[in-house]
Amino acid sequence: TIQHQYYFLAAMALINVGISAYYYMTVARLMFFPADDAEEIPLVGTPGIGAQLIITLCVLGVFWIGAYPPLIIEWANSASQFLLAIL
User: How many helices (H) does the chain have, and how many strands (E)?
Assistant: First the structure.
């Protein structure tokens, strides 16, 4: 159940869910059912070495965060304590 003072917040959340669902469903619809007047864009080629390096670093970062979450949580806790101490 929703407490009385949170009705406005719940209503705003429902409105935002509706807006986001519309945008996500539009993307999904265009992925599976392209527009009739859409033209095919040819692929240019393979990504360069810079793009491959960045993608590799991002994938490794995601795996590292997934494998060692306590380290990230510790960093986040210390950062939040520092920021709250400033305020």
Answer: 3, 0
How many Å apart are CA 36 and CA 32, to the nearest integer? Answer: 12
**pTM higher than the cut 0.90:** no
Phi and psi at residue 51, to the nearest 5°: -65, -40
Retrieve residue 63's tokens: 């795996």
Contact, 55 vs 47, CB < 8 A? Answer: yes
DSSP state of 68: -
Report pLDDT digits (tens) over 6-27: 888 889 999 999 999 999 999 9
Q: Which residue has the tokens 């990230």?
A: 72
SS3 content of the chain, % helix, strand, coil (to 5): 75, 0, 25
Q: Are 10 and 2 in contact (CB under 8 A)?
A: yes
